[in-house]
Design brief:
This protein is of the alpha+beta class and 359 residues long. The protein has one domain (6-13, 36-346): Beta-lactamase, CATH 3.40.710. The chain has 11 helices and 9 strands. It has helices spanning 6-18, 22-35, 70-83, 109-113, 126-132, 143-153, 166-179, 186-201, 234-237, 243-255, 338-346; strands at residues 40-46, 49-55, 63-65, 240-242, 277-279, 282-284, 299-304, 308-314, 321-327. A 7-stranded antiparallel β-sheet has the order 2-1-9-8-7-6-5, sandwiched between helices. The chain has a two-stranded antiparallel sheet with strand order 3-4. A hairpin with a 3-residue loop joins strand 7 (299-304) and strand 8. Helix 2 (22-35) packs antiparallel against helix 11 (338-346) and helix 3 runs parallel beside helix 7 (166-179). The chain is globular, with a radius of gyration of 19 Å. This is Beta-lactamase.
Length: 359
């Protein structure tokens, strides 16, 4: 008598919860194995029901480094400060004064959060420190130096053009810390986030430092097990969280508790597929089939660290929430976008015909 594959059984439950179509269900196990070859966690939620699917013996309660899935949290902090009157989405951040006084006039919270401020992807010196400080390329910098780098090397694009930037979102996070009355540093950002986002939303295990023994150790290509450091640019990729907290965070976007900033997507030049729009902290991708309003399109973001890959998304139309937490960095061969591809598949945004990555 054959024993049923427990992973397939759990994935079938997830597919049922999300009401996936026959074609999506058929490729789901292969896509999961392609996205999480070294194990991880897939989390889904809909209508108040949650399901955490462990893969490869990884604890579903484990904490992962989020990499760029930190960026939706930074956008939520901006939204919270806007709601409190401490910030305005479309006014120059330099109006906040102090260390922000010298920033260019086109540096607004919205443009930095949507990667349309013309800020390079990384500080100039990261070209060297990515080699000399592989696991902590920004750690040598101060907050003031990060601001100076962005100020020196940015060029306002006209019309607005998409240029993905860790430096830009990191500078935004520092500005938000200042707006919240905190220090211009990673620690200041963490304090502001705890006070205005993770605390109010009930995310006790989300922060800049995981509790001892909770971290799912990264697995890099070179065998390293160190998390990736972000130094003063922590707001671009320095958070840690478990799958459960990520689902709670996504639910707060569906309910509006985390703000409504994800609704207003823009369409700058240069957006790479499958991104069709960019909202603060989120990308949008349309579902296949008949056209629906963009407000109903899935919102998502993914992240890549040296030894971890992540994705988080939600569908305003279906109420579905998805997170993918994969142990292991980008592969040398095979599908490099497998984690976001899995998230989009689960959200019903994958473009037909559906195939397993690399297949």
């Amino acid at each position: 008598m054959f024993r049923r594959d427990p992973l397939r059984a759990r994935l079938a439950e997830a597919a049922e919860l999300l009401d996936l179509g026959h074609e999506q269900r058929g490729v789901l196990p292969a896509v999961v194995r392609a996205a999480l070859p070294r194990g991880g966690v897939v989390g889904v939620s809909r209508g108040g029901t949650r399901l955490l699917v462990p893969v490869g013996g990884v604890s579903p309660a484990g904490v992962f480094e989020l990499a760029s899935v930190t960026k939706p949290f930074t956008a939520a902090l901006a939204s919270a400060l806007v709601a409190r009157g401490a910030l305005t989405w479309d006014l120059p951040l330099r109006r906040l004064g102090g260390p922000l006084r010298g920033l260019p006039a086109h540096f607004t919270a919205r443009r930095l959060a949507t990667h349309t401020a013309g800020v390079p992807g990384h500080p100039a010196r990261a070209a060297l420190t990515a080699l000399t400080r592989y696991h902590d390329p920004y750690g040598h910098m101060t907050g003031a130096q990060a601001l100076a780098s962005a100020r020196r090397w940015s060029r306002e694009p006209r019309p607005p053009t998409f240029l993905y930037s860790n430096l830009g979102v990191g500078v935004l996070a520092l500005a938000l810390a200042h707006a919240a009355g905190e220090a211009l540093s990673a620690e200041g950002y963490g304090a502001a986030l705890a006070g205005h986002v993770t605390g109010p939303l009930g995310l006790p295990r989300t922060g800049l430092k995981p509790a001892p023994g909770e971290l799912i150790a990264p697995r890099g290509l070179l065998g390293g097990h160190e998390p990736t450091g972000f130094g003063p640019l922590a707001g671009a990729g320095g958070l840690f969280a478990p799958a459960g907290d990520l689902l709670t965070f996504g639910e707060a976007h569906l309910s509006g508790a985390a703000g409504d900033h994800g609704q207003a997507a823009e369409h700058p030049r240069g957006l790479p597929r499958p991104r069709a729009g960019a909202a603060p902290g989120w990308f949008t991708t349309p579902p296949p089939g008949p056209a629906v309003p963009e407000t109903a399109w899935p919102r998502w973001h993914d992240g890549v660290a040296r030894g971890t890959r992540t994705a988080l998304g939600f569908s305003p139309a279906s109420g579905a929430l998805v997170t993918v937490l994969a142990r292991g960095g980008l592969p040398l061969l095979g599908a490099r976008n497998a984690a976001p591809a899995l998230a989009l598949l689960l959200l019903g945004a994958a473009i037909a015909p559906l195939t397993a990555p690399g297949g």
